[in-house]
Amino acid sequence: xxxxxxxVLISVCWAEPHPDNSSLENERIIHIQxxxxxxxxxxxxxxxxSHRGGNVTLPCKFYHEHTSTAGxxxxxxxxxxxxxxxxxxxxxxxxxxxGHHRKSYGNYQGRVFLRExxxxxxxxxxxxxxxxxxxxxxxxxxxxxxxDTAVVALNLEGVVFPYSPRLGRYxxxxxxxxxxxxxQDSVIASFDQLYDAWRSGLDWCNAGxxxxxxxxxxxxxxxxxxxxxxxxxxxxNYGFWxxxxxxxxxFCFTSNFNGRFYYLIHxxxxxxxxxxxxxxxxxxxxxxxxxxxxxxxxxxxDRCDAGWLAAxxxxxxxxxxxxxxSPNEAAVRFVGFPDKKHKLYGVYxxxxxx
Length: 354
Hints:
It is found in: Secreted, Extracellular space, Extracellular matrix. It comes from Fulmarus glacialis (Northern fulmar). One of its GO terms (molecular function) is hyaluronic acid binding. The protein contains 5 helices and 25 strands. With 354 residues, the chain is of the alpha+beta class. The chain has 3 domains: 39-64 and 75-156, Immunoglobulins (Immunoglobulin-like); 158-254, Mannose-Binding Protein A, subunit A (Mannose-Binding Protein A, Chain A), CATH 3.10.100; 256-352, Mannose-Binding Protein A, Chain A (Roll). It has a 6-stranded mixed β-sheet with strand order 4-13-12-7-8-9, with no helix packed on it. Strand 12 (135-143) and strand 13 (146-156) form a beta hairpin. The chain is globular, with a radius of gyration of 28 Å.
């Protein structure tokens, strides 16, 4: 068997004497021959930052390892962009190009195209970014039998916030949690987004769904009801639970918006239905939870007046802590879900720009 293996090695490799060494171990260099230059795909930046409504370029270029040319000319270059999911066995098609043929998919249609600043440029431009665009993208270049890939992460400037419905804490399965975030002008947050929020000071004791199906919560001030006062700060992980049967809160993520968020100046306090009509009369709509968090975090909106929001909750945003207005911390203060027909409050409105 050893003799056969030796003969096989002799048949695929050749050796030459090394001029500088006389020892047996160093006097031969093994050469493995390859057929032609190797295709390389490179992302100049591994992480790109943008915001909702903006445009962004995900960088990707391709080369041959031993040449300065983009392609060999023998085969057409095929460029394919996909979005990676939390399930690494699945990918979402984004864009494919080969020769003069171009095709985009799903909600990327009409919003994506190649930059093509040079013959080896496969960078993808995404226009009018939406919240769902956040994530990791794979650039794959194929030429004949050769192919290579690079991965680029698209991060969005925004804010993570905990959400529970009128029914109270731990009342959402995973699918209901997704819909709840969408109803509040947001999407269900990823672990990376929650981790960044925790690093920025988010502390919340109720466990909530994340986009990968896990249930977690961020603690900056360890205490007995939240994992124990002797534990270290961190993002606590409950693990993965049944998406249909298990019920928790949810962490949502939202970014900036194309519109105006404001507290409506009105001569009287309002019931919930009166608040909805007052915003409509002012050419706007009653604001959503995601919009008050975005205005507070990204625009520094500060108002000590409690006001109705679309889901029936009452909140107010404080960016400058002061006496009688969240004296200890900047936060969106939660008053609760008052009786819609009898309780009177102000209202926060949102007017979208055309």
